[in-house]
Write a structure and sequence with these properties.
Blueprint lengths: L11 H9 L5 H6 L3 H37 L2 H4 L6 H7 L1 H7 L1 H11 L1 H19 L5 H15 L2 H12 L5 H17 L1 H8 L10 H17 L2 H4 L16 H14 L10 H6 L4 H30 L5 H6 L2 H21 L3 H20 L3 H28 L4 H25 L9 H33 L16
Length: about 475
């Protein structure tokens, strides 16, 4: 089997693409100035990035609505004593981590349109089930299944985006679908507050209606994905007349002009796993995983901290996290625009890390509820903005379709490990100061700084040697790292 760590000459499909686009020079392909390319990108921005953002909104809501449900009374009704709440959070992640690699391999095999539609509808049904349980132990099984289903979504989405755009276009798209979804998901507290007003309807408590209605909404939004979403570029002409064969080959030609890795060899499990020998993948995973520590800690515990420690009302505790996510999308999309424009990633990532440190210190050590709440903006905003930067950084520096799939699964799996850590660091016995949680967040940020600096220095050195003709990067004489 030909390995894409050692890219070969264009194979049949790539040659066909080159023949059909021979009248478009490489500069036009890479800059996207050709009107046909602009038209295709407008379509993909809506049908891929837009839809993925909407569906990720429901993933974000369905995954972290436990905090809102506890504030609405679930903790009392299900007798969540001791570590019960942490257990409910924790059991999701082992399944989310373990099923990353097989789920993205299945998505590559059957196509993202069918795959994403199925898992979204399925996890919507599972979310409904959360509102029907009579004990918190019954909810454990549902959290495990939810972890399996959601394992396939984010890594497949990031992988799909990377197959449609050249490297200099990926940051804006990753930021758009992730941050739009996160921002809308941030309004989950407001939605939860509204749904809990159904308390007593059908003889069910308000917190149950949070799960039931959010699950129903997920199913309703998931079903149209089968028609709207598109598959990989070479398969797109089959996706409900999205683009024709010539347009698909134009996209393929762009990708080949940028990184020459469109061709997908037959799947080989042994070789797929062997990509784990590349040390850089694990540094990419650290960037994503330790950023996720902070993000999950905030997502699960910010409503509780706002209610119990800063003294805000139930309504305020569920709603005040939404402005933080609005700030996240403003910051992240703005940064990604300039990141793509100047083709740099690490400086923006490191700047956000500095903001996170400020945010943790203000939230944890300042005086006054509103001042501490202001600190939450500088945790949520840069923390969530760094997730798409982590995705873009790894996507820009990987060659080969299956290696790209493996890397996407690995870093999102690392995000699951970050979720485990984030779910454990803010313990009820540490209230009101929560010092261990704060120190854990600061440590996580420090590790990502070290990881990003290590790989960026390596990439800079490798690019210099490549420019001097002393090195071939990733087996491709024309490939250069992005940092």
């Amino acid at each position: 089997m030909a390995s894409h760590d050692q890219p070969t000459a264009y194979q049949h499909d790539s040659k066909h693409a080159e023949e059909q686009t021979s009248h478009v020079d490489e500069d036009a392909l890479l800059t996207g100035n050709d009107p046909r390319i602009k038209a295709i990108k407008r379509k993909t921005d809506i049908r891929i990035c837009g839809l993925l953002g909407v569906l990720y909104m429901m993933a974000a809501i369905d995954r972290v609505n436990l905090g809102n449900a506890v504030v609405a009374g679930m903790g009392v009704d299900l007798d969540l004593k001791g570590n019960a709440y942490s257990i409910l959070i924790l059991v999701f992640f082992p399944f989310y981590i373990v099923f990353q690699a097989p789920m993205i391999a299945i998505a590559r095999k059957i196509g993202p349109r069918r795959f994403i539609t199925f898992i979204v509808v399925a996890w919507g049904i599972i979310t409904v089930g959360h509102g029907l349980v009579s004990t918190w132990r019954q909810m454990i099984a549902l959290r495990c299944v939810l972890g399996i289903l959601e394992a396939g979504y984010f890594s497949t989405s990031a992988y799909l985006v990377s197959t449609w755009y050249i490297r200099r276009e990926v940051a804006k798209r990753n930021s758009s679908f992730y941050l739009i979804g996160s921002m809308l998901g941030g309004f989950g507290g407001i939605l939860a507050y509204g749904l809990q007003q159904m308390d007593g309807v059908g003889g069910r408590e308000g917190w149950r209606w949070i799960f039931i209605m959010e699950g129903v909404i997920t199913v309703i939004l998931g079903l149209p994905a089968y028609v709207i979403l598109v598959d990989f570029p070479e398969e797109a002409p089959k996706s409900w007349k999205f683009i024709n064969e010539e347009q698909a080959q134009l996209v393929v030609a762009r990708i080949n002009a940028d990184r020459r890795d469109v061709d997908t060899p037959p799947f080989n499990w042994k070789e797929y796993i062997s990509y784990g020998k590349d040390w850089k993948i694990w540094f990419f995973a650290m960037n994503f995983g330790f950023t996720s520590v902070v993000n999950y800690a905030v997502a699960y515990f910010l409503p509780i901290v706002l209610r119990n420690e800063l003294g805000f009302s139930v309504a305020a505790a569920q709603c005040l996290n939404a402005p933080c996510y609005v700030f996240a999308i403003i910051l992240g999309v703005s940064e990604s625009y300039f990141s793509d424009k100047y083709n740099i990633r690490a400086p923006f990532f490191l700047f956000n890390c500095a903001l996170e440190v400020i945010g943790v210190c203000v939230l944890g050590f300042a005086k006054g509820s509103y001042v501490r709440y202001f600190g939450a903006f500088f945790i949520v905003g840069p923390g969530f903005a760094n997730i798409p930067f982590s995705l873009t950084y790894q996507a820009n520096n990987i060659l080969g379709q299956w290696k790209r799939a493996f890397c996407s699964a690995t870093i999102v799996g690392a995000g699951g490990i970050g979720g485990i850590i984030g779910s454990l660091v803010f313990r009820s016995q540490d209230a009101p100061a929560y010092r261990p949680g704060l120190y854990a967040c600061l440590t996580a940020v420090g590790i990502t700084v070290i990881s990003m600096c290590t790989t960026s220095v390596y990439f800079y050195s490798a690019n210099r040697k490549q420019a001097q003709g002393k090195r071939i990067i990733e087996g491709d004489p024309q490939f250069r790292y992005t940092y």
